[in-house]
Fold this sequence. Notes:
The protein is mostly helical. The chain is built from 13 helices and no strands. The longest helix has 44 residues, at 23-66. It is globular.
Amino acid sequence: MATAIxxxxxxxxxxxxSVRPSQSFLRRRRLLGLIVRVILFAAASVSVLVTAxxxxxxxxxxxxxxxHVSVFEFLTDxxxxxxxxxxxxxxLPLLCGTVVVAGIALLVAIPAGTTLAIYLSEYAPxxxxxxxxxxxxxxxxxxxxxxxxxxxxxxxxxxxxxxxxLPGFNMLAPGLVMGIMILPYVTSVSEDAMRAVPNHLREGxxxxxxxxxxxxxxxxxxxxxxxxxxxxxLGMSRAVGETMVVAIAAGQNPNxxxxxxxxxxxxxxxxxxxxxxxxPHGSIGYQTIFAAGLTLFVITLAFNVLGFYLRRRFREVY
Length: 318
């Protein structure tokens, strides 16, 4: 009996010995793992290298511009006429137009996107959610040039019924359309952040007598604040960097005004205008697009840094 038991116990050990991987197999596996790590590292480095290349081009070309124009004049002058005989290089008119259009877009997208995200996360049945979210995401695939002509040929004539005398080029129409355009970004990211809040927090709120609306606004939204902030920052960056909508519907005349019913050029619209022109490469007029691009890059970087700080400051770990 003991001999039989010993024999049965020896067979599994012998089986393990027979399936032990060979040294050549282990070497191939280590080599394959090394190759995969190198490929993944190279893929991750592409974004860093591209960003570094963009920064290098913007800074190097902008230094040539600032060797002719002082930074103080660039930041404080109230006129932007770099293509005129009496050239003026104040970025304020372009910056003002960018802020006004982006501000209108955010006034539309943030309240509407947050409200829709709360509905999808807390109120909507599964079938309704599965229907609305793909429809919203379809808006992301619409070309921006279509949004631009929609603002110029439909929204502007519609607004003239409420604002008589509204110019054909104005900042109000593209701002409203841009708000619709960035609405899917704000809604989708905010809704994902709200659904990531654990259900036991909702159940605790209901146990304390909260209504569904109170639980959503006082428990879910604060719990998902870091993700909602990321959605807002994404929407801001998208609005500030938009090109075709404002180039088509807002006009291309730099105008230092906060009146949204007037036309004005934005930073991106000016870059499009000059890059499609016949200015000689290396001229001071051509270098202005890099100075304007650097300004836009700094604004976007400031938004990202602010979003990073808010996410770290208010992040909830469950």
